[in-house]
Write a structure and sequence with these properties.
The chain is of the alpha+beta class and 74 residues long. It has 2 helices and 7 strands.
Length: 74
């Protein structure tokens, strides 16, 4: 499944992104999955839960793909 996520600039943390997409139920679950090497960022395993995700980044967790874009505050 692909998730198209639009968030406010300039970035969102990786663990927060997983929670925003409802791929994890808690920050602790996100931390575990990331530290176990189950999350890819732009084609490479990412083990840094506080990694700043920026516009155009692609995150993969299992069969889930997240494309990130940003929107300005109204």
């Amino acid at each position: 499944m692909t998730h198209e996520v639009s968030v406010r600039p300039p970035f969102i943390r990786l663990d927060a992104l997983l929670k925003l997409c409802n791929l994890v139920q808690s920050g602790g679950e996100a931390k575990t999955l990331i530290q176990e090497g189950q999350v890819c960022l732009n084609g490479a395993i990412c083990t840094e839960r506080s990694k700043k995700i920026r516009e155009g980044d692609v995150v993969i967790l299992g069969d889930e793909l997240i494309r990130v874009s940003f929107h300005e505050a109204e």
